[in-house]
Amino acid sequence: ENNTLTTPSGTAIPTLSKSTNVYGIGYFESEEANFYTDTANNGNVTITGSTFDAVYGGYTIGVNGENTTANNNTVTLNNNSINYVYGGYSGFGSANENIVTIDGGNYGVIIGGWGYSGNANRSAKNNKIFISNAKIDIYKLNYIIGGSGGTANENIVTITNSTVNLSSNTDNLFFSLTGGVAYSDVAKDNKVIITDSTISGNVYGAYIYNNNGQLAIDNNITITGSSDITNANLYGYGTNSSATGSGNTLTLNGWSGTVNSLHNFDSIIFENIDLSQKEITLDVSGEVSGLGDDF
Known about the structure:
The chain is an all-beta fold. Helix content is 0%, strand content 51%. The protein contains no helices and 28 strands. The protein is globular and about 60 Å long.
């Protein structure tokens, strides 16, 4: 544990190439070797001005039946071109408290913490993604997920002054911009915060996957500044089952404009907006569904 890999701009590491995966801790040595199965905690990766296929702060396949964790890993990326970014990945355990910070560059898939989906005791909790001055449009299928696991609580995705193109993902469930994805239990207190950015595609505070008894509780999407969400579809929560939600909110902080569609919010909170001006604050050009009784 406590491994660190740093690639400062202008420093060449000959053994690394575009097809290489970078790990703060945990790895796959060769085609003949077994996957890394120990805990993958406290890894640290910093990369500047480079091109890679995938970067993991911490990576472990783990052991079936054991909570082999990928916790407390950090990934810091500056002006790179990288296809896949994971703060922490655990095949059979939890992925908590991971942090991904991106400033500049172009990326495809960004995940704060990815834990095991088949057990409610395997959590993705308090993972954080901070994206600024970047583009997310390398692939036809791009997505950002704060945390995914049996439960998904208190994950945060913050996007500032960036362009996120998810427009090809509209039929691919939670593979979009999502605060937290829960497979086996609750998704609670997840947040997506969008500031001065352009977003195209689906945005979910949380997503409940394939479980009818789950709840999506107190998740939030916040839009602020001069963000352009004209081609975005906002969901307090989404699901491909009959899961339900409560307390999911949309916050408009000093923002006024148009959104393509609006779904599954219990309330809309207006902050730093002068409603006395009687101007359109939120215009929905398409579908509206699943809003609370106060609407």
